[in-house]
């Protein structure tokens, strides 16, 4: 289950499997439990695809959703009125 504080989840990767990046944007500073949840998600992915490096960004960003940087794929986007 995705925590209610998550606004957006997106990812990007190098086609040569050199690296993978998961970015999770929260509406508050993420706590350790929230960070750990997405670390588990990344670990599960890495058990199936062997990227050389993995980056996890769990960040707080209060900007309007349309101003947030998009990576290659958006996996989740919370509905927000502007």
Write the layout of secondary structure elements.
Blueprint: E1 6-13, E2 19-26, H1 32-46, E3 53-60, E4 73-77
Parallel strand pairs: 2-3
Antiparallel strand pairs: 1-2, 1-4
What does this structure look like?
- By secondary structure, the chain is α+β, with helices and mostly antiparallel strands.
- The protein has one domain (6-77).
- It has one helix and four strands.
- It has a four-stranded mixed sheet, covered by helices on one side.
- Strand 1 (6-13) and strand 2 (19-26) form a beta hairpin.
- The protein starts with 5 loop residues before the first strand and ends in a 5-residue tail after the last strand.
Class from secondary-structure proportions: alpha+beta
In whole angstroms, the N-to-C terminal distance is 25 Å
Radius of gyration: 13 Å
Strand content: 35-45%
Topology, number of strands: 4
Taking pLDDT < 50 over at least 5 consecutive residues as the criterion, the unreliable ranges are none
Helix content: 10-25%
Elements, N to C (H/E) = EEHEE
Main beta sheet strand tally, sense and closure: 4 strands, mixed
Major sheet strand order: 3-2-1-4
**DSSP helical segment count:** 1
Envelope shape: globular
Domain count: the total is 1
Mean pLDDT: 93
């Amino acid at each position: 289950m995705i925590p209610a504080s998550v606004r957006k989840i997106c990812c990007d990767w190098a086609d040569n499997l050199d690296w993978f990046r998961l970015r999770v944007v929260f509406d508050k500073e993420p706590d350790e439990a929230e960070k750990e949840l997405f670390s588990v998600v990344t670990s599960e992915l890495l058990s199936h695809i062997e990227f050389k490096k993995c980056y996890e960004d769990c960040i707080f960003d209060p900007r309007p959703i349309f101003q947030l940087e998009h990576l290659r794929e958006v996996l989740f986007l919370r509905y927000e009125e502007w």
